[in-house]
Amino acid sequence: MREFGEFAGQLVAERRTAPGDDLVSGLVAAGDELGIDERRLVTLVCGLVVAGHETTMTALGNAVVHLLTDGQAAWPGLAKDAEAAATAAEQLLRTIPLSEGRVLPGLIRRAVEDTEVGGVLIPAGSVVAVRTNSAGRDPEVFPPGDPDLFAPLASPSIAFGAGPHHCLGAWLARLELEPALHRLAARFPRLRAEFTPETIEWREGQMTRSPLRLPVSW
């Protein structure tokens, strides 16, 4: 993380002296105009890299694992059109967890006041871990069992959070994930796994979990 911060700091300094039409240059210009200090700018750049790349990479890798193993029957449907892929992406985001449950049990939140959830009192100041994966499979909201990937969600997914914690990059994640699934299936209709769930080497120890590599053939 220290190296990551140093990299972002150097990037901010470079864009300040030689600005371009990229996002970081825009952030630096806006930050200087608004008086945002250097530390906050660097933190923002780091956050954008993690939130805008790492999570989408994770979602795509985990989706492909499912689609080339248990979800093989859905592969041809992804190639039909972008709309079908968009529906499938929402179902995949809902049902396939991004989180690395052994390190972080869920989204970490702090209660700002006494709150009752499910008959349990959470005192103000308590830290709670929200298992959104479980919520996405709530049988009272979503049909139990394996989902029909091409069936629109009957209820909104909370894969991107909700309320004041709704992910600001949700639109970007969808913009990346939906065409990626559609074009991958259209370009490689006979894509097949040269791995099994038992042979996958996982990237672990962070907020998310994804395969380090996925050998395939076509």
What order do the helices and strands come in, and which of them pair?
Blueprint: H1 2-17, H2 23-34, H3 38-67, H4 75-80, H5 82-95, E1 107-110, E2 115-117, E3 120-122, E4 127-130, H6 132-135, H7 170-187, E5 192-193, E6 202-203, E7 210-211, E8 216-217
Antiparallel strand pairs: 1-4, 2-3, 5-8, 6-7
Helix pairs in contact: 1-2, 1-3, 3-7, 5-7
Percent of residues in beta strands? 5-15%
Query: What is the number of helices?
Result: 7
Q: End-to-end span in angstroms?
A: 38 Å
Quaternary state reads single chain
Give the overall shape, derived from the CA principal axes: globular
Unreliable spans are none
- The overall pLDDT average reads 89
Largest sheet: 2 strands, antiparallel
- Briefly note the CATH topology name of the domain at 37-98 and 140-217: Cytochrome p450
Largest beta sheet: strand ordering: 1-4
- Overall radius of gyration: 20 Å
Counting helices, strands and paired strands, the structural category is: mainly alpha
Q: Helical amount among residues, as a percent range?
A: 40-55%
The CATH class of the domain at 37-98 and 140-217 turns out to be: Mainly Alpha
Known CATH architecture of the domain at 37-98 and 140-217: Orthogonal Bundle
Order of helices and strands: HHHHHEEEEHHEEEE
GO molecular function, one term: heme binding
Family: Belongs to the cytochrome P450 family.
Protein name: Cytochrome
Keywords: Heme, Iron, Metal-binding, Monooxygenase, Oxidoreductase
